[in-house]
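call fold(seq) -> tokens
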Amino acid sequence: MENFSKNFKALKEYKQTFQKFPKQKDNLVLYTWMSSIRTQYKNHRLLPEEIAELEAIGFIWNSHEHIWQKNFAQLRSLSSEEMANLPIDNEKLNQWRRIQEMSFYKGKLTSERMEQIKSFVERPELGVIYMKAKMSPVVEAKWFINYDRLVEFRKRSPHRWPGKTDNDPIEMKLHSWCYLIRQRQKDGKLPSLWRERLEAIGFNFNALRDNWISKYEALKKHLEENNGILSASIHKKKYSWYRSQLRKKLDKEQQKMFKSLPPVQTSGISESSWMEQYHQLAAYIEAHGKFPTHTINYKMACWTNTQRAHYKKGILRKKRIRLWKKLGLSDLKFDGFHHIWQQKFEKLRSWRRKNPGLWPVIQGSLEEERKLAIWCRYQLMRGKQPRKPLSAEQAEKLKDIGFPFSDSPFSKKRVKQ
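ret:
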């Protein structure tokens, strides 16, 4: 009791002087004594009069609980804007908050602390229950700020949504925020109240689809007002988008909408450029009697394949189809693969006529024979696998020259039949 009175007197004087209890670095002796007092209190070894004296000076029986309640009260007093700036203004409190959020979602807090946090995060003014949304108070505060910014942005620019830009950092942040919203909506993690608020301002949750439809409607309106004329030099954006859709693989609904467009008449740079490419192709075919390959003329081969793709989609203009047929290769029906296959087949048939009873082998002495052997082995594989099967016409042509579908002599030493 005498030892208690001595230490209690020193503690009381310290509290009156500094208006706080000592920490370990301030007074190690008193700090150690307070720890022993808490242990005795926990084990019910303190006298009632000793407890009364300590409570009279506001002694903290549970230091961890005291610090937790102090930090929680400080966090709860913050406004939404102060909460958003917490990582910058008070790094220590923000670190404590992150630890509590992690413990909260993992269910590691006591039931009393869980109830306190629930009463805090279910504040009516926030309009969202964080437990269901899995959002922290800081994140929710940022959402409110960004939501207000988005509303202001739409007032200034009612015909568009925030996009990627280097000129306006705020718009760039809003673009990232909108992406986050769409991702949460896609994953089913966006709270219903937030979804209702965003729907109230016409938020486009499916940005890619909505943007495609808006550009499609703008193009359709333009074509209707200009008799289908689309100039590459005057209407650059619409023309570029139109051309990009021709190259893309659209879904069935988009294909149907695209085919319903008025007939498109491109003009200007595009038409002259097409004719220039066409004349170059015509000169090449006249000189070589075949279409160019990617290894010989990459640019011309790509352009040729583009025309084939447009023909298959039914979007190549009739005038251009007529010009294409004038090349003297109309029997190809715009099928480049069929053309190449036919060329290889004719080479194989010619080689067989020169070498009756033989098949080309990969170990052949001539490069032409080795290439034919590789092609034959590929046709044999196509005849056995359903991934890229031979057409009925191709299979019939190979059978006519006795192609060995049941054997593979192309990798073996040459054997006479």
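The longest strand covers residues 229-231.
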